[in-house]
Amino acid sequence: MSTTDSTHGTDAHDAPDSPGYPTFPPGFAFGTATAAYQIEGAHDVGGRGPSIWDTYCRTPGKVADGATGDVACDHYHRYREDVALLRELGVDDYRFSIAWPRVQPTGSGPANAEGLAFYDRLLDELLAAGIRPAATLYHWDLPQALEDQGGWRVRETAERFAEYAAIVADRLGDRIPRWITLNEPFCAAFVGYAIGRHAPGAREGRGALAAAHHLLVGHGLAVRALRAAGRSEVGITLNPDRLLPASDSAADLAAVRRAETLHNAVWFDPLFAGRYPEHERETWGELADGSYRADGDLDLIGAPLDFLGVNYYRPITIAAAPHREADPARRTAVDIGVEETWRDDVRHTTMGWPVVPESFTDLLVDLDRRHPNLPPLYITENGSAEADTVAEDGQVHDADRVAYLRDHLAALAEAVRAGVDVRGYYVWSLLDNFEWAFGYDKRFGIVRVDYDTQRRLPKDSYRWYQGLIRDHRRRHGQRPQDVSGTPDQRQD
């Protein structure tokens, strides 16, 4: 018997609190997104090796309630019913990530045939359902063996990443039209190697800056490998932050400049402007000595891309603040003399993040104007964690998430009307899942997962999104389930 309860008698256009849907141009792609460690489970099945997240989760006090991704949503065994949910939802695309330690258990050497076979099965299931796969090569699950050898602090990890990319492209490339090298390298480098709130849990200065650079080098090498394998739609996903000064004082404006370097310029300048950040010395002082850089790195990192993935959730308010560590030699890479806070005059999600849809428009318009060389954009993550409960009628009436999606998609539509070239939008996330250091306390899914039974239950937000997709197709003369072909082929 299926554990999925995907029908509850509510037509997509009768979902609660669903006013007129935002409108998008013909060919605009709708999808959802997930990540391997957050949903797959099967941590010791099929030859998969341990990742830094397996290790981190087993470090006492690091993850809420001592949770792990050992089982997560058991997607490894239940992928067929998850693809069935995607098909019923009507999405064009499904963004997922490939687990490096499932393909190369130690991060190097020959491919693990059983691990690749899982992705063979998943891809065939997606294509049979008329859904285009969009694969992320790295969503933070570095093989532990590579971390033991220095992790992203050392260039060798970038070189191993390129070898892994070539293996995946060779085996799976015929069925994956869209490739994302890295997801949110900010989190991998700075939350993982400087804040210590993500794996591997380090608190470093130069090591974190080296990790940031080597992630970009790994991206460039992976792009080269994917191009060599004939892959024609290649990009990267960043999480640029909308950073707002707490006041117009000179100190706060200078703090914003440093925060822009940390959050945004360290990625955008090498990728799209052919330079390292202008204010890196002001931001990091002697830590920014560039000792981890090599001649030719900028050319490698800045190779042309076909798209940029953008993840957005909330804006941040920035104020000047004393350094937490007075000794520059002992500062981490995130101790840059700023205080980051959230707006307190709006609703907050259960992550504590403020809900400010207009900031989404502002961010995209600002990116478009500030970086004239950007390729077309895809919104590769956007969504909200809410206090979902199963109601007496057995359903999840997540009105706050419906409102969040409605308002943020309206803000996205406004950015498109302002001239920003956005080609698609992926909800985060299809499923409730393992939410990193928060364990299973935060639910982002448009499908509820009962972690005891693994039963899937579509929420009202699922039905609302389903209605949006159907409405979009009707507007442009498409059949409700016409999800085949490329975006251009699906235009009027």
TrEMBL record:
Record-listed substrate binding positions: 38, 139, 183, 313, 428, 435-436
A GO molecular function held by the record: beta-glucosidase activity
EC numbers on record: 3.2.1.21
Protein name per the record: Beta-glucosidase
NCBIfam families registered for this protein in UniProt: BGL
Gene Ontology terms: cellular component: cytosol
Record region (Disordered): 1-24
Record family assignment: Belongs to the glycosyl hydrolase 1 family.
Active-site residues, Swiss-Prot/TrEMBL: 184 (proton donor), 381 (nucleophile)
Keywords linked to the UniProt accession: Carbohydrate metabolism, Cellulose degradation, Glycosidase, Hydrolase, Polysaccharide degradation
GO biological processes: cellulose catabolic process
Origin superkingdom: Bacteria
Reaction(s) catalysed (UniProt annotation): Hydrolysis of terminal, non-reducing beta-D-glucosyl residues with release of beta-D-glucose
